[in-house]
Amino acid sequence: MSIYTGRGDDGDTDLRDMSRVSKTDPRIEAYGTVDELNALIGTVRPTGYDDVDERLRTIQNHLHVVQAEFANPDSDADEDAPTIETEHVETVEAWIDDCDEELEPLTSFILPTGSERGARLHHARAVCRRAERRAVDLAENEEINELAVQYLNRLSDGLFTFARLVNQRDGETEEQPQY
C-alpha cells in the first residue's frame, strides 16, 4: 500500500465516515492539533524516569482516541469507535495528585524552562492548551464528546505538573517571571 493517494491534493480530506471536508475544517484543526501534541510528547520520551515515561505512553494512546473521536462526525453510528471516558480524566487527575506529593507547593507563576525534557513538557502543555481551544471551537458548532475537551483541559495541567516534576528530579530550579 502506498502512503500517498493524491486524494488530498485539492485541499480536502476524508473523515472517519468517508465524508470529504476542507483541510481547514474545525474538525481537522482540532484533531490535527491533537496529533501535533502527540508527536511533541513523543520527542520527550524517554525522560529517564520510568513512571513519567509510562504515563506519557498512556497519554499518547489516549490522544489517539481523542483524534479518532474528532475525526468521526457521527459517533452514534459507530458503537465500536474509541471514546474518551470519565476514567481517562480521572487517571490524569490521579497522576497530578501523585506528582504533587513529590513537588514543593506552587506559590507563583513560573517560566516554562528547565532541563531539555522539562522545557519540552512545558511546550507540550502549551500545544495541549491550543488543542483544547480548537476542541472548544469545534464543540461550539458540532456535537462532540464533552469529555474529550475535559480530558485536554486536565492533560494540560498534567503536562505542567510533569514538567515541574522532571525539572525537580533533574535538579533544575523553577524561575519566576519578573514583572
UniProtKB/TrEMBL annotation:
Keywords per UniProt: ATP-binding, Cytoplasm, Nucleotide-binding, Transferase
Localization (cell): Cytoplasm
Protein name listed in UniProt: ATP/cobalamin adenosyltransferase
Basic and acidic residues bias (residue ranges): 7-21
Keyword Cytoplasm: yes
Pfam family, one: Cob_adeno_trans
Region (Disordered): 1-21
Main location: cytoplasm
One Gene Ontology term of the molecular function aspect: corrinoid adenosyltransferase activity
GO cellular component, one term: cytoplasm
Keyword flag Nucleotidyltransferase: no
Species of provenance: Halobiforma nitratireducens JCM 10879
Domain annotation Cobalamin adenosyltransferase-like: ranges: 3-165
Source species, domain of life: Archaea
